[in-house]
TrEMBL record:
Protein name: Sugar ABC transporter permease
Family matches, as PANTHER family: ABC TRANSPORTER PERMEASE PROTEIN, INNER MEMBRANE ABC TRANSPORTER PERMEASE PROTEIN YCJO
Topology relative to the membrane: Multi-pass membrane protein
InterPro entries: ABC_transporter_permease (IPR051393), MetI-like (IPR000515), MetI-like_sf (IPR035906)
TM region positions: 9-31, 73-96, 108-127, 156-179, 214-235, 262-282
Membership in a protein family: Belongs to the binding-protein-dependent transport system permease family.
Length: 294
């Protein structure tokens, strides 16, 4: 046995535990759930009835699925630009030479590593229509309080605000890492040429930050499509008044674990995968035009 073969064998043996865990807990569930999507199964009975594409066909005509899809798209459209813009603004401010910068950075990042369930309980108290902190602040300003959690008009506002507050710290830290990788020589040359702050940002910072921006755009879009826990911790078993907070992941959860239609829920999961895949391809196509054109 040659030395190269021995080295490769040792490498594969060291990777074997990881490959086994990956196969058992990732690859097998993916394949198995895809197969289940073609069956009618309630998780209780060992018998699975093959229905072919019936689950997928029913999804396309289900008005509740269309409502969940519309709510999810609305959340994505509101959440992604908000968290990226606020994260970029926070990163630019933190990149400046200010006092207590490390403390501000830690404070901004802290909600991201805090338990979402615990944060949700606090936010449900803040948005409470009777004794919530938000209504107390509004009343102190002479404004009428709002029943935030029981009015369908404010459901998406609550979810987006909650999601942005939870994720803006992570976005800011990633943007900050991208800003600190930009050479100071570009800014020094621009200062010599008398470029304004806006022109430095427009022609130096933003083009060189485009790979980081694309990475965060892709990541936050995928996370937005998977919104679930925010809805659950704020509204419990009912996804907001008149299903105003029903999202695709919440829809799958209800179908699988409340109505015990696991085959149908798996089919919905792969429809969601297809939707995210299409959006990812669109963003990749856009990135090829934007990232390297500046």
């Amino acid at each position: 046995m040659s030395r190269r073969v021995r080295r490769n064998l040792v490498a594969y043996l060291m990777l074997l535990p990881t490959l086994v865990l990956l196969g058992v807990f990732t690859v097998y569930p993916i394949i198995n759930s895809f197969m289940i999507s073609f069956y009618n199964w309630d998780m209780m009975s060992p018998i699975k009835r093959f229905v072919g594409l019936q689950n997928y066909q029913h999804i396309l005509v289900d008005p509740l699925f269309r409502r969940a899809f519309a709510n999810t798209i609305l959340y994505v459209v509101c959440f992604v630009p908000s968290v990226l813009l606020l994260g970029l603004l926070a990163a630019v401010l933190l990149n400046a030479k200010i006092r207590f910068r490390a403390a501000f950075r830690t404070t901004l990042f802290l909600p991201y590593i805090t338990s979402l369930a615990a944060t949700g309980i606090v936010w449900s108290r803040i948005f409470n229509g009777q004794y919530g902190l938000l209504n107390y602040l509004l009343s102190s300003l002479g404004l009428h309080g709002v029943d935030w959690l029981n009015d369908a008009r404010y459901t998406m506002f609550n979810l987006v605000l909650f999601g942005v507050r939870q994720n803006v710290g992570y976005v800011a830290v990633v943007f900050l890492a991208g800003l600190q990788n930009i050479s100071r020589e570009y800014y020094e040359s621009a200062n010599v040429d008398g470029a304004s702050a806006w022109r430095r940002f427009r022609y130096i910072t933003w083009p060189l930050l485009s790979p980081t921006s694309y990475f965060l755009l892709l990541l936050t879009t995928i996370e937005a499509f998977k919104v679930f826990l925010q809805v659950y911790v704020l509204y419990g078993e009912s996804p907001g008044p008149n299903d105003s907070g029903l999202t695709l992941l919440y829809y799958m959860f209800n179908e699988g674990f409340s109505d015990y239609k696991m085959g149908y829920a798996c089919a919905a999961a792969y429809v969601l995968f297809l939707i995210i895949f299409i959006f990812t391809l669109l963003q990749m196509s856009l990135s090829r035009r934007v990232n390297y054109s500046a």
